[in-house]
Amino acid sequence: MKQAVAKSEVLPHPTAAGMRPRVGFIVGPTGAGKTAFAIELAERLGAEIVNADSRQIYRGMDIGTAKPAVSERARVRHHLIDILEPNQAINAAEFARLARGAIGDVIARGKRPLVVGGSGLYLRVVRRGIFSGPAAAPGLRAEILARAVRQGSPQMHRRLGEIDPEAAARIHPNDLKRIVRALEVYELTGAPISRYHREHAFADREFESLTVGLMLARAELYAAIDRRFDTMIAAGLVEEVAALMAAGNQGPPLSSIGYREIAAYLRGEITLERAIELAKRESRRLAKRQLTWFRAERETVWIEPREGVGRALRLFEDFFAHGSGAGDG
RNA sequence: GGCGGCGUACCCAAGUGGUUAAGGGAGAGGUCUGCAAAACCUCGAUGCAUCGGUUCGAAUCCGAUCGCCGCCU
After folding, report:
1. In this structure, are residues A66 and A118 in contact, taking their beta carbons and an 8 Å threshold?
2. Which value does ipTM take for this structure?
3. pLDDT tens for each residue of A173-185
4. CA-CA distances (angstroms) from residue A47 to A44, A190, A214, A278, A287?
5. Stated in angstroms, how far is A217 CA from B22 C1'?
6. Sign of the Cα pseudo-torsion (A181, A182, A183, A185, in order)
7. What is the pTM of this model?
8. pLDDT tens digits along A260-284
9. A80 touches strand B (CB under 7 A)
């Protein structure tokens, strides 16, 4: 609040908005049918797809992420799929860099970029950038985390309150991840993370965007999620997880929904039936959280997948060709 | 038809006369700036099958009715 003046100073309103490149977005919760929808749309639009799913980035995670099949990828060129090994870490900043690079590449070749995915934060940073603070410092982070384990997260929150009251006010005392990140940034730079955030303010927009969201009635979405997980099991998800485990992976893959439950089954901790039940439930909860995130993005145009691609096609054709003004920047 | 048991939220369930009816599951709403398929926060019965009675006071006791379950005929 007290810094409102500074905020307006670093936010010169982009007057040349209409001249920025145009990027389409297809978002939606898991199981809503983004993949098939996006591929058909991209084909008709002459677009290439830039993946914004935090797990489809990984090789070896195919079945459980409902990754578009090779045959589907032959119809439309996809970017940012299978670019990392399962033991490689990625984060929002790195993703934004990669995605923006891919978008630039698509545009440079005269094609239309269509970003497709359900990872809320990733989608946000692609569109609006991320503050240019220090990257995570694993050693320091581990050290802060160890301290937090000893002292408890409320104590760490109190400490944060001393150096960065603004951040402390926004972060819940139990939210250890964000407390640690805030302390990390402070120890690395001597500057409070709230200052970086305030100065950045998600105002780094490189292109105009139009976002179409896929929406199903809740009960219908949940039923589709449950059904799809059974299909994944039938398609060999257990074997896929076993392969990841055999390769000694510890990173994001085995902490992903569907994967971690099957891994617990393979370790003999729970029955397969229970693993399936848990995976379905976690997938439903994920979908719910995604919807919460997307609802907050007011500019999204929502459509039902069963309507078909028609309306989205018209919206995007107009957007890419003339600029409909529906863009959110 | 008779006898017995049971009916508390979407589900399971504690409570057997005395402040605002435990708890769990499922679910809903939300937060989100470098691990995000992560992490974190918040939330359901003016109501105990229904009606009537006893009592200062009833989910708790009594009666009737309805429903479910079991046994018997």
Report:
1. no
2. 0.89
3. 999 999 999 999 9
4. 8, 44, 18, 37, 26
5. 35
6. positive
7. 0.89
8. 999 999 999 999 999 999 999 999 9
9. no
